[in-house]
Amino acid sequence: MTALSSGGLTTGVASPGGVSPSGGLRRFGSARWRRRNLTFDKISFFLVFLVIPVAFYIGFVVSPFVQAAYFSLTDWTGFTPAMNFIGLSNYAKLFTDSTFLQAMSNNILMAIVVPIVTLGLAMFFATLVTVGGSTRGNVKGLRNSSFYRVISFFPYVIPAIVIGLIWSQIYDPSAGLLNGILTRLGLDQFTSFAWLGDPRTARWAVMFVIIWGLVGFYMVLFIAAIKGVPAEVFEAARIDGAGRFRTAISITIPLIRENVQTAFIYIGILALDAFVYMAALEPGGGPDNTTLVMAQELFNTAFTKGQFGYACAMGVVLAVITLAYAGLVFAVNRIFGGKSEVGE
Amino acid sequence: MTQISQGAVPTAPPGERVPTEPAEAYEKPGTAADKAVTGFSHAVLIIWSILVILPLIWVLMSSFKTSSEIFASPFALPQHWSFQNYVNAWTTAGIGSFFFNSVIVVFGALILTMLFGSMSAYVLARFSFPGSRALYYLMLAGLTFPIFLAIVPLFFVLRGIGLLNTLPGLILTYAAFAFPFTVFFLYAFFRSLSKSIAEAAAVDGAGEWRTFFQIMLPMARPGLATVAILNFVGLWNQFLLPIALNTNPDNYVLTQAMASFASQAGYSVDFGALFAAVVITVVPVLIIYLIFQRQLQGSVSQGVSK
Question: How far, in Å, CA of A258 to CA of A2, rounded?
């Protein structure tokens, strides 16, 4: 293996043999020798399979990320070639920009509320569906659980923008479904209540839509994770006298902790973005900017105001917050992970 | 419990039809509490299901109403079940052609990213060479950084190569941003495939190209299907990339066309057509979902657990 790794790409070609037992290596000895030659097959293979796709990826994904970091240090407006290096002053400006700071705090609130509520509901439903069945006989889920699973998952296949449009109609003050139902129930104060227009309700209304759209997805995810836990574990817990909810808290969640962590990261990234939902529900940032998110502010700064350098600085802040969020999730998982393992 | 027995979901006494194993030895007698919990579970899940379905049914119903009917009452059924709203949405609002644009862009990007992604994942999974770990982390970075960070430079990258506001430009961008996920997923998949098969192919004289296309790729079919499904849903729903990089109204994809149609409808108030457009957007995906829901849900759980 060591001899192989000293070379470049072509020796790498032979290296999979290193994983198999040495007998295998000896058996493929002659083939390996032949494969050391740089044939047209091999060169073209690496060129097409790795070099071209990766170059394409770097050009369209990696280089924009790097460029954004650089642009954030300039006063570039995009339409003139003039680009002055201004150091960190975009960032200094950003942290005195009250609109952006409000967007940031809105985002942070959403990144706390949306994951906790969504994943809490998803875990609750997933538990009901998988191990909520009878305590007699085998550990099993509810009847018709696939019906609930299929229905709950519906919103995932609806484009987020369309979910937003549907709910902006439901929330409509006069013709919307929500106020229609509430007035039908006799709550006349809601006759023409503007859910998306009132600073007290706008952000919760918007968060509800995001949660509505995502619960089913994570429910399916957790169901799959719980089904991956061997049934004997649940049966053993039952012999020891654990009830269904005790089982869920002390057995299920610790056992699928990795999936919960992944879910938290995915949904947190989504909540820190939230652009699509806002574009449909609150394109203007909502009443008193209560639903304005960083992504919206970035988009407007770049594509309507043309302040590309400043917008890139916002992008960097957004990226840093996203990474910090992911780091926080990892850290929390590590802290609590240790404890519950001891608890088992 | 009452709620359940009224609904279409029958609750036979649980535990009767399921074949019981020796586990019966530690059966519990408390069936009354059992039923209560089961009933509660059903009630909660039914309430959630209603919460999911009700808005969709309402949209479907409203799509047949005229704007004045929509404003008159959110509950009243349409007086005439006419497809006029659908005709308006499809032709006047041009949803039809945007639908077509979406199909072109999504499938173009899907083919590109599946081809490139599977090839690179295969190379990364099977061969170790200097820089392979660095490449792996490069992919990870592409997965975790928000697209928003890249959006401004991307605009100028596309303008630089003359593909701004064009469908090919959008296809390339979609493919590039789906690439790291595809590689990540398929990397794990190719890792799990036995290496001895590729070696055997090499012994039999197959070149690297042939080994990949004739042996490894067919073996990876389940993994490919999973990634393709996930990529399809993700790309079909993509919104930010088109509204930033594709501002020519003729080239709109469905998602951005819906957004612009909705903001126009605010003035001309053709809400009936808006609802119809929503139905047109949702129904094909919903039908595909109902057909493939098992695979799709399987895909989701695999995709995220990797």
Answer: 34
Task: Compute the radius of gyration of chain A from its Cα atoms.
Answer: 27
Q: Any idea what the CATH number is for the domain that residue A111 is in?
A: 1.10.3720.10
A100 touching B (Cβ < 8 Å): no
Number of structural domains found in chain A: 1
Q: Residue A144: its pLDDT value, please?
A: 75
Write the pLDDT tens digit of every residue in B189-199: 888 877 788 78
Cβ-nearest to A303 among B120, B244, B256: B244
Cβ distance of B199 and A129 shorter than 8 Å: no
Question: ipTM score here?
Answer: 0.81
Inter-chain touch B75–A180, beta carbons under 8 Å: yes
Q: Is residue A37 part of a domain?
A: no
- Cβ of A64 and B150 within 8 Å? yes
Q: Can you give the residue range of the structural domain that contains B246?
A: 88-305
Count of domains in chain B?
2
Which among A28, A255, A46, A276 is positioned nearest to A158, based on CA atoms? A276
Q: pLDDT class for A60, splitting at 50, 70, 90?
A: very high
Which of A25, A7, A8, A27 lies closest to A16 in space, CA to CA? A25
Of A9, A148, A165, the CB nearest to B45: A148
Residue ending a domain, choose from B62, B79, B108 = B62
Residue B68 forms part of a structural domain: no
- For position A290, what pLDDT does the model report? 92
Residue bearing the bigger pLDDT, B244 or B267? B244
Give this prediction's pTM: 0.82
pLDDT at A43 over 90: no
**The domain containing residue A264 runs over which residues?**
93-343
Q: Report whether pLDDT(B25) > 80.
A: no
Gap between the Cα atoms of A15 and A107, Å rounded: 48
Q: How far apart are CA B273 and CA B281, in angstroms?
A: 12
